[in-house]
Amino acid sequence: MDIKDKFNNSLGVSKSILMSAVKSGDRVVDCTMGNGNDTEFLCELVGESGKVYAFDIQEKAILNTRAKLEATGNLKQTSLIKDGHENLDKYIFENINAAVFNLGYLPGQAHYITTKCKTTLKAVEKILKLVAKKGIIVLNIYHGHEEGKLEKNALYEFCSNLNQKEYNVFRTEFINQVNCPPELIVIEKR
Fold it and tell me: Which domains does the chain have, with CATH numbers?
């Protein structure tokens, strides 16, 4: 197995990071639920005593995720929210231990419906206020389309300016791969 397969274009890295940071009973957020893969993964990490908030604007994402969670018995600790991640502060009133974003469009659906630079930045700003000490935010950035490029550049600039006394920020990327593999930014609250 080569490193690209092992880390699955940043998704394996983000899952490894989440596995090391999230424990049973934690409160976590899937800011871009999509087909529910991260939502289900987070449910397994937090267990029955934890809580997963999951956001998406598309009904198809809600339906796909609900079906997946019902099949695995993980629906009970999850709040599926049909709203943009920029509105997460209307639904979450407690500290969270981790959040994950998979930015771009819903796989298998219309590519013109994507996360947007402006709303993603609002969501990151709001989640930073909710994340507990030693909590993390994982941003998987799919930048192979115009809005993705805008998001990537805006997130790099925003994260580069976070106070180093309050946050640790790092990023990973494949530098010799074609077709714009996703890049990863991780923010840890100190």
Answer: 3-189 (3.40.50.150)
Are 25 and 47 within 8 A, CB to CB? yes
Give CA–CA dist 25/44, Å, rounded: 11
- Residue 61's closest CA among 42, 80, 85? 80
144: left (phi over 0), alpha (psi -120 to 50) or beta: alpha
Q: What is the pLDDT of residues 12-36, one digit of tens each?
A: 788 999 999 999 999 999 999 988 9
Q: How far apart are CA 19 and CA 98, in angstroms?
A: 10
Nearest partner of 47 among 30, 16, 82, 23, judged by Cα: 23
The pTM (predicted TM-score) of the whole model is: 0.88
Q: Per the structure block, which two tokens stand in for 171?
A: 């990023």
Torsion angles phi and psi, residue 135, rounded to 5: -75, 160
- The residue whose two tokens read 């609900």 is 66
Given a contact cutoff of 8 angstroms between Cβ atoms, the answer to whether 175 and 2 are in contact is no
